[in-house]
Design goal:
Layout: H1 16-21, H2 28-36, E1 41-45, H3 51-72, E2 79-85, E3 95-100, E4 104-110, H4 116-121, H5 124-131, H6 142-159, H7 165-179, H8 189-198, H9 202-224, H10 228-238, H11 246-255, H12 261-271, H13 274-277
Parallel strand pairs: 1-2, 2-4
Antiparallel strand pairs: 3-4
The protein binds zinc ion.
Length: about 280
């Protein structure tokens, strides 16, 4: 879901340290922690926003980046967050997308009539920011990228105490129940998932992809108790900037654990009939 960048109307680049010096209720210790924290968050305002709106948007995104860091580790690069104004929306963030060129960008189209609480419980920012935890793997593998972000958005919201494990379990049950009929095919899962993208069955592709990471997490936890998120924290420091494709990512995950569980699971998703995986 790429988005053509508009002509830059106004750019405000604000570091986390400066941002936090404006937020009165934060303790000196919290400010200090953010000053030394890397990456930097750089806010780019593509439309006019009032100081009050900017404060709300920055609080929301900083909380979400902190939740992402606790779930997936600190990213080894700066985050460029672009804010675009949207109006008359039925949700706080009706549209968002990443742009993975020389810098790591996320664009958010926001309706500022919604409250800070509405923004913080919305899944869009955890989804988009978690995309950046792994390299861009190409449009032809978008089931993998979207599955990763869809799996991680829930883990981040759980970490941010915006949902419970029971909420997540219910969501998987509901989403996988509606996706399952689309995977009752002889072709491998990875092929079926990309056919679903071509036919615009996005929720079925996203949640089918999330099932890969749901299963991978279960396998990793049964291995040595560490979750996929725990492994990804190491991944940010060892491998994120070196890996170029899915096989690199999976082999980097496997390097952290016994055996080759991530590569073995992908082999199943690439070779076994989809109906045997999502049955
Ligand atoms: Zn996505």
């Amino acid at each position: 879901m790429k988005y053509l960048l508009p002509v830059l109307l106004s750019v405000a680049v604000i570091s986390v340290a400066i941002t936090y010096s404006n937020i009165n209720e934060k303790s000196a210790q919290e400010v200090a922690e953010l000053v030394i924290s890397s990456p930097e968050i750089l806010f780019h305002y593509e439309d006019e926003f009032t100081p009050g709106e900017k404060e709300k948007l920055e609080k929301w995104l900083i909380e979400t980046v902190k939740g992402t860091e606790r779930t997936l580790g600190k990213y080894p690069f700066d985050l460029h967050l672009y804010l675009h104004r949207s109006s008359n929306s039925s949700e706080p963030v009706p549209w968002a997308n990443t742009d993975r060129s020389s810098i790591q960008e996320v664009h958010f189209h926001v309706d500022t009539r919604f409250t800070l609480e509405d923004f913080i419980k919305d899944w869009t920012a955890p989804h988009e920011i978690s995309h950046l935890a792994i390299p861009f793997v190409g449009k032809s593998n978008s089931w993998f990228a979207e599955g990763f972000a869809t799996y991680m958005q829930n883990e981040i919201l759980l970490e941010m105490k915006q949902c419970t494990q029971e909420d997540i379990n219910n969501k998987y049950e509901q989403k996988l129940n509606s996706a399952r009929p689309y995977y009752q095919e002889e072709e491998p899962f990875a092929i079926v998932a990309m056919e679903l993208r071509k036919s615009h069955h996005y929720p079925q592709m996203y949640w089918g992809g999330a099932y890969f990471f749901f299963q991978l997490n279960e396998i990793l936890e049964s291995n040595d108790g560490r979750s996929l998120g725990e492994i990804m924290k190491i991944y940010q420091t060892c491998c994120r900037l070196n890996d170029k494709n899915i096989n690199d990512i999976l082999s980097s995950i496997d390097d952290q654990v016994e055996g080759t569980p991530a590569q073995d699971l992908m082999k199943r998703y690439r070779t076994v009939p989809a109906r045997e995986i999502l049955n």
